[in-house]
Hints:
The complex is a heterodimer of chains A (267) and B (424). Chain A is of the alpha/beta class and 267 residues long. Chain A has a single domain (3-123, 188-264), classed as Rossmann fold. Chain A is 36% helix and 16% strand. In chain A, helix 4 (96-107) links the parallel strand 4 and strand 5 (112-118). Chain A binds chain B through residues 25-28, 31-32, 34, 95, 134-135, 138-149, 151, 175-176, 178-179, 194, 216-219, 243-246, 249-250, and chain B through 47-49, 74, 76, 80-90, 92-94, 96-98, 100-106, 146, 149, 153.
Amino acid sequence: xxxxxxxxxxxxxxxxxxxxxxxxxxxxxxxxxxxxxxxxxxxxxxxxxxxxxxxxxxxxxxxxxxxxxxxxxxxxxxxxxxxxxxxxxxxxxxxxxxxxxxxxxxxxxxxxxxxxxxxxxxxxxxxxxxxxxxxxxxxxxxxxxxxxxxxxxxxxxxxxxxxxxxxxxxxxxxxxxxxxxxxxxxxxxxxxxxxxxxxxxxxxxxxxxxxxxxxxxxxxxxxxxxxxxxxxxxxxxxxxxxxxxxxxxxxxxxxxxxxxxxxxxxx
Amino acid sequence: xxxxxxxxxxxxxxxxxxxxxxxxxxxxxxxxxxxxxxxxxxxxxxxxxxxxxxxxxxxxxxxxxxxxxxxxxxxxxxxxxxxxxxxxxxxxxxxxxxxxxxxxxxxxxxxxxxxxxxxxxxxxxxxxxxxxxxxxxxxxxxxxxxxxxxxxxxxxxxxxxxxxxxxxxxxxxxxxxxxxxxxxxxxxxxxxxxxxxxxxxxxxxxxxxxxxxxxxxxxxxxxxxxxxxxxxxxxxxxxxxxxxxxxxxxxxxxxxxxxxxxxxxxxxxxxxxxxxxxxxxxxxxxxxxxxxxxxxxxxxxxxxxxxxxxxxxxxxxxxxxxxxxxxxxxxxxxxxxxxxxxxxxxxxxxxxxxxxxxxxxxxxxxxxxxxxxxxxxxxxxxxxxxxxxxxxxxxxxxxxxxxxxxxxxxxxxxxxxxxxxxxx
Lengths: 267, 424
């Protein structure tokens, strides 16, 4: 299996530097890191990829069964680390990817040596004594939103998204095609993301961990950031002066500074 | 725009005053008035989503007062929870990356708990040095459109479910038909001492039951019975007729293995079952017995035909000919039917071939009327005379394949022969 092609892996930056893997969250693809990559390339080797079903990944590799649990995505990350023979890499995961990183680090401890969690949440749905911010009905509503928004996806666009150069007549990209995703696959990822519960996995983290949260994040409220910080042994929590769920897009300078500082302090 | 001023006709004549007044009334709309009362919602937010300006149209839709909104609420506060999630995971990142986003379907919450489906477009306004200053957003009422889209989605889902169901039904039906078809043919042919047997069945269509049949079975210590035939029609009714025919012939043969007697019994049964009920159904069939002589190796063949194409005898010496059974009637049509007996002996190297008319009525040209025919078959048989039953059936199978689309009927083949090498 060609992992590099399956996950549309891009490697850039300084080949001599420590490897930093940037993992996008639900809703977009590696494009999300466009403001982060420039800050890293001088000193670090940067690995970007798309989860199967997102961006320009190989959608023929999609399996509803495999990707119905975060373990399936984590296995993909481990396979990616093996394919590139990464050792002691820093895994930067946005949103649900932070949890995928926790699972992958547990599966292949020699390959992942540190974690950066950007706006993480181990569980989105409220539970006894835990506030995730959402109810099960809210998640159904999101799934309905996905249903009514194809965001640049259409069957005719598929060859372009898959990078099919033989069909130049399809070259005109739709406005919202940046993070175009097959809606059926997006639905599976959404379910897996918002219905999983990774709270118990957090206490098993054995690597240096930076938790980045925003002052105003609808998806990951402040309580969740505190919960993650308190549960991951020895973790550092930084509250970015940023709003929304994507500080790496809305406040790239502050986000990059926090990541660079953490990277510099490793070892 | 419908009212481009530069395309207004020159006012003239008596209408001058009236149209001038109407034009002035149009111009009376100030930009502010246009903004506030536009047929769509407008709002501007700071980069963190805080609402800085909102028009009356949108406030009316929301059922909110301006003071409660401006500077106090964020854009996401107007959305349903699912919409908030969608906004944070898709809308906001895309807007950040592209600087604009258009036509996103969301729902806004009204103060009274209602919801309005809307289509939202946003663009980032940038300052002189390119730094993002604020987000301008238009909100279109999409109630009718959303209802229509939901109808389409529902329709598509119904069609998709129906297609899946139809596929599953078809697969199940094919399985059932295959089992039924299988039950109408013998699993394997019995070992007839000193005789080599070969058979082949071609099904014209996988989802229609064929109407051809054959069987071989022992009747006493030294004789075996065989039959091959073709019932009228296809499908389940033909299968029922085939089943009745097969078991009638088997039972009749045990009672009296004389070929004419067996076919006469079948005729009586079919006529009673179908023609008497006003639904005449019939078949053609060859029924016969094989009696091998363990001393000479010769096999005595006795047979009778009811309206079936004549069997072929391929001789070891390279000749072939039809074994004619003139005058045999279709089985089941008349209350009393006459069947003509015939017989031959198979010596080592001889082969007896039974077939159904799918073979002789296969089309060989573009023209529907050019059929393979008796002459073609006889010539083919002559070329293969002296070959074993298995080789003959194999050659015929190749011939059937070569007909391609020209072969549109079921075809059954059954061959018996005395191996040539036994005698040497």
